[in-house]
Input
Amino acid sequence: MNTYKRNLYLEKGNGSYVYDINGKKYLDLIGGIATCSVGHSNPEIVKVINEQSNKLITASNLFCSKSQELLAKKLSELSGLNKCFFSNSGTEAVEAAIKLVRKHSNKKIIAMKNSFHGRTFGSLSATWNPKFKNNFEPLLPGFVHVDFNNIKALKKEIDNKTAAVIIEPIQGEAGIIIPSEGYLKEVESLCKKNNVLLIIDEIQTGNGRTGKYFYYQHENVKPDIVTLAKGLANGFPIGVTISDLDFEPGDHGSTFGGNDFCCNVALKTIDIIEELLPGVEEKGDYFTSKLSEIKSSKIKEIRGKGLMIAVEFFEEVEPIVKKCLENGLLINKVQKKVIRFLPSLTISIEEIDTGIEILKGAIKDD
Output
């Protein structure tokens, strides 16, 4: 169905590079929209894939899974929360979070303006942008939206009729919108004061993307529910909802969620991410510093945290994206005037330099 505008056939990948069906090589700074966390065809991941494919792909959740238990234990240790529900994607992880809230309270859920939480009905109800929603109403009731990075707006809306607040610590689809330092901590404090659950959507910011495994660790925040997906298994479809709250048998389910194959790939991916974490902020700082050296009146602002980076322009960026594609660089237009970079955490300084040079040429030519 006609849900994406696309015209490039990619056939294989290696590290930070992908190749189309004609053999042309591209430096990939989209990273599967943050899913390819440790590089295309990572040898350690390929080894796990081969080994597990000869053992068991899935036997359904009617049976116990040791790999699922090990992954849940690892994610609990990383997050500081005790229970995991495994699904297949970020939007499913948000759906589970909403159901978990509804199980404990039927009060309203506060989300943020310009937020993006997914495209299924519950997660779409939490999402703000009307362009994603208008064709599919009526949506799930009980959601209200307030300004992001505005603690006064949240204070005004939060009350004894509030069940939860759901928030992206950095708004990814909105163009890498980074809140003021301390804002997330203020949100946490406000939720605790009002006995309101705090859901932090780490689907794009998690898995080491910002220099810590979860973004909320930068501000020493402890959420009640965390949603995670994208780069958890280096491109394999897996989502997880993490919380101290729990379901009962029959409350929720997933046929493929937490299958042995994806869980084993995720376990190895986490191992690699933990090794890479010390260098993520350093690479991100280098990337943003090189972007800031581009002298162009077209550039309005550069924003980033770790390897989650955006450049906002004064004009539409489609011509720049197309020129980069022609010259072997894949970048993502996330808003009309915003380019987003979500490279694999394995990207090298030399590869960053290569990308910057191609981008410079595209900006100049445009």
